[in-house]
Write a structure and sequence with these properties.
The protein has about 675 residues and is an alpha+beta fold. It contains 26 helices and nine strands. Helix 14 crosses helix 16.
Length: about 675
């Protein structure tokens, strides 16, 4: 049996005294996906915190809890087991645990709710004396208001149905902690939620009012009830050059939603938060209906349409993956093999035994979703890593007889080579899906590197070689417009790359196109400076109008007839000279920016712009309007992941406005 390695010394929690990790086979690193109990040798899922290991320790080694249960800081999340332990009263501890059990059983809630953020936050509002079983003499108005707000926060954060406040188990649990507190009705919480929605909407308006420009992501989604929704998220850079993402709305679409209808709904969504229409720089989407709407909005407001690069990347891989019959059969065989171990308890037990015999940490196989090639990649990658334990388990007569599920040597080789091809694409997909950092400007370099790395690999199996060639063709076909630039119709992605100090040299473009991009940037910068000057001049003219010359209009007209108007040639010469100086200043700024060495590709360009905005004030304004655009519509898709949890049997009567409100509150709950 392989020795359990201690947890890293930087992990200070006392609980790690009793837990460690196995080493990954052939590597010097730990397999931190599962912690191993040093007492009973059981494996516990590790998700980056101590929640699961503490739960295991409390359940199986309660007699040793005193050695690790030091009082947590205020910021830590107290669990019910922790509150029970502090009580020092075994009967009280049992009563608290019984309350939780009733909550989960009677109210048909899922296990693990006791670790939800909102649920823990609600418990944390209780005074220690209340939770520890000491007499509760009263519940003041202030305390009741605090508890009510805490329950509302839990409902929003954990996306619980409002009917939960009338469930017997929930009321019994609240009564256990504070018998004097009376839980308000559903109607009261509904009115509180509406008020919270209004407050948060005003907060968003205030935040967005101070932005220079925004970018939107949008997507259309169909719920389990066959209702069609349009989700909109908003992205902007604050004064500190930090990337921000807010969720605006989830609109239910009519049965027949045309491009004109979607354009109107997008305008309404923007107007709902008092965002001036010219402030919207671009909209990222991956839907044909939205594309038609963007054509309308481009004509109306000059909004830029950006196709979701994640959608394009998926098409680059998914189509060739399904077209190659040999690869498709191999993937299907691997899928059946994984499914067998998932469903057959004997096979699963044998796999764990073989892993232990070979000194490998027990790791479960991953089942994929056939429509998502990234999940197929993870399934094949895990299966390849567990090849020999799987093969050994399959050789046991108790596991399998007929038909034989084991893959042959050719299929294993094909899987190994296929993973090498798909690996860079999976990494690119994960990177482009981020919303806290700049992504669009990195797209040209990323695509260029993908094509280069794909063609540089050499494989032995004919199916993977053919797949490799087809993927390279798809890259060229799907992204052929990405590397073309015409000044009369500027490429938004290339302009964003030019304003990213990491890619300002544009090494993936021919020298002729690099010059075109730089000239376009200079022209746009000049327009920005001239607009700023005109804005200042109009402000000065308004101030002068308030202190009009006391000599009157008649005398002014006389002087004008004698001396001439302000539009004489001398004035024109002054304007031309001022324009020339302005043009030279902009040209100097642009040449200096592009003349600098590029920033390391590992660096974040936003802090660089924060530090250098004073050196390049005009380009900084342009950079804010381009770097804010995300490369994918993933944020709006995440909006639907949240919205999908709202319509349910317990929420069958919800209207579209309520779905929008609940989704909005949940996704932006950290704002207030």
């Amino acid at each position: 049996m392989e020795e359990i390695q201690p947890a890293p010394s930087s992990w200070k929690a006392k609980i790690w005294t009793y837990f460690g990790f196995y080493r990954m086979p052939g590597k010097g690193t730990f397999d931190t996906s599962f912690a191993v109990c040093k007492i009973c040798k059981k494996r516990v899922k590790h998700c980056g915190n101590t929640t699961n290991v503490r739960a295991h320790f409390t359940r199986y080694h309660l007699e040793l809890l005193d050695t690790v249960a030091s009082p947590p800081p205020v910021a830590d999340k107290p669990t019910l087991q922790y509150l029970s332990k502090l009580s020092g009263n075994s009967e009280r501890a049992k009563k608290i645990n019984r309350s939780l059990a009733r909550l989960l059983a009677k109210d048909c809630l899922t296990n693990g709710m006791e670790e939800n953020e909102g649920f823990i936050s609600m418990l944390q509002t209780e005074e220690p004396s209340t939770a520890l079983g000491r007499p509760v003499l009263s519940c003041s108005v202030k305390e009741a208001a605090l508890l009510t707000e805490s329950i509302l926060d839990m409902l929003i954060t954990d996306m619980c149905p409002l009917s939960m406040v009338e469930d017997k188990g929930f009321r019994k649990m609240i009564s256990t902690f504070n018998p004097k507190y009376s839980i308000p009705s559903i109607g009261f919480f509904t009115s509180m939620m509406e008020k919270r929605h209004q407050e948060m909407t005003e907060k968003l308006k205030s935040v967005l009012q101070g932005t220079e420009c925004v970018a939107l992501t949008t997507d259309i989604w169909t719920s389990v009830a066959a209702e069609v929704y349009l989700g909109v998220s908003c992205h902007f850079l604050g004064e500190d050059w930090e990337m921000k993402c807010l969720y605006l709305t989830t609109v239910r679409l009519e049965e027949r939603h045309t491009a004109a209808d979607i354009a109107d709904w997008l305008e309404e969504a923007v107007g709902k938060f008092s965002i001036p229409l010219p402030k919207v720089k671009a909209v990222v989407h991956d839907n044909e209906a939205v594309l038609g709407a963007l054509e309308i909005l481009t004509e109306r407001h000059d909004w830029v349409s950006v196709i979701c690069s994640g959608h394009t990347l998926n098409a680059v891989v998914q189509s060739p993956l399904g077209n190659k019959e040999t690869i498709a059969k191999c993937v299907d065989s691997a899928r059946c093999l994984v499914e067998h171990f998932k469903r057959n308890e004997v096979a699963c037990t044998k796999l764990i035994e073989k892993q232990q015999e070979m000194g490998m940490p027990p790791m479960m196989l991953i089942q994929d979703v056939s429509a998502e090639w990234t999940s197929t990649y993870h399934m094949l990658s895990r299966l390849l890593g567990q090849r020999w334990p799987v093969t050994a388990a399959l050789s046991d007569p108790a596991v399998i007889k007929e038909p034989r599920l084991d893959l042959d040597a050719e299929q294993w080789n094909l899987i190994e080579e296929l993973i090498q091809v798909l690996g860079p694409f999976e990494g690119a997909t994960e990177f482009l899906s981020g919303e806290q950092y700049v992504t669009l400007s990195a797209l040209p370099q990323l695509v260029y590197n993908l094509k280069k790395s794909t063609l540089s690999l050499t494989f032995k199996t004919a199916p993977v070689t053919a797949f490799q060639a087809q993927v390279a063709e798809q890259i060229v076909e799907k992204w052929q417009k990405l590397f073309s630039f015409q000044p009369e119709a500027p490429n938004t992605v290339l302009l964003a790359a030019a304003l990213d100090p990491r890619f300002r040299k544009l090494k993936f473009l021919p020298a002729e196109d690099v010059f075109k991009v730089q000239c376009t940037i200079q022209s746009m910068a000049l327009v920005v400076r001239m607009e700023a000057r005109q804005s200042n001049e109009s402000g000065n003219e308004e101030a002068a109008a308030k202190t009009k010359d006391h000599l009157g209009t008649k005398y002014g007209s006389l002087l004008k007839s004698i001396l001439g108007s302000s539009s004489d040639s001398s004035s024109s010469e002054d304007d031309e000279e001022e324009d020339e100086q302005l043009s030279q200043a902009v040209q100097k700024e642009v040449l200096q920016y592009f003349g600098e060495q590029p920033l390391s590709k590992k660096e974040n360009p936003l802090p660089w712009w924060r530090q250098n905005a004073a050196r390049y004030p005009t380009l900084a304004k342009l950079a804010k309007s381009f770097l804010v655009i995300p490369a994918t519509s993933t944020p709006s898709e995440r909006l639907f992941s949240a919205a999908g949890n709202i319509p349910s049997k317990r929420r069958a009567g919800l209207g579209s406005e309520q779905v929008d409100m609940l989704t909005f509150l949940h996704c932006n709950h950290t704002l207030l």
